[in-house]
Design goal:
alpha+beta; about 40% strand; about 130 residues; Alpha-D-Glucose-1,6-Bisphosphate, Chain A, domain 4; seven-stranded antiparallel sheet
């Protein structure tokens, strides 16, 4: 199996880092846009889509800055991360998503993230 590579996506968001962080780091927030249902127990998040469940451990987080998860079925060095940045000049909030995929799958994975982020923006009213 080919080694997956890290790729980064950036999306300008019209909301405060505090509000955005809640949608990225809490089960109720993630359940609004990322999965049909999200539960958390002892730092392990259970994401449900159409009856299928995937689990991810929250590895690191900093309030209103970033949160990093790792699928329990993924290699130890792979993760997906939501980072919240502010542009210096315009002070605009930017959502930075980092994820891993095989080279040939990055385009498909990017399209999946585009769909998910569109749903997030809809929930945020952004």
């Amino acid at each position: 199996m080919a080694k997956k590579q890290l790729y980064t996506l950036e999306y300008p968001v019209r909301c405060s880092p505090q509000i955005l962080y809640e949608f990225l780091a809490t089960p109720s927030g993630l359940g609004e846009w990322f999965a049909d249902k999200v539960d958390e127990r002892d730092g392990v998040f259970s994401f449900s889509w159409n009856g299928s469940v995937e689990k991810a451990q929250q590895l690191e987080h900093e309030q209103d800055k970033y949160v990093r998860y790792r699928w329990l079925t993924a290699p130890k060095d792979e993760y997906f991360e939501f980072r919240i940045e502010k542009t210096e000049i315009t002070n605009q909030t930017i959502l930075v998503i980092k994820d891993f995929a095989e080279k040939g799958e990055i385009k498909d994975q990017t399209q999946l993230w585009e769909y998910q982020v569109k749903e997030l923006f809809h929930r945020l009213g952004s």
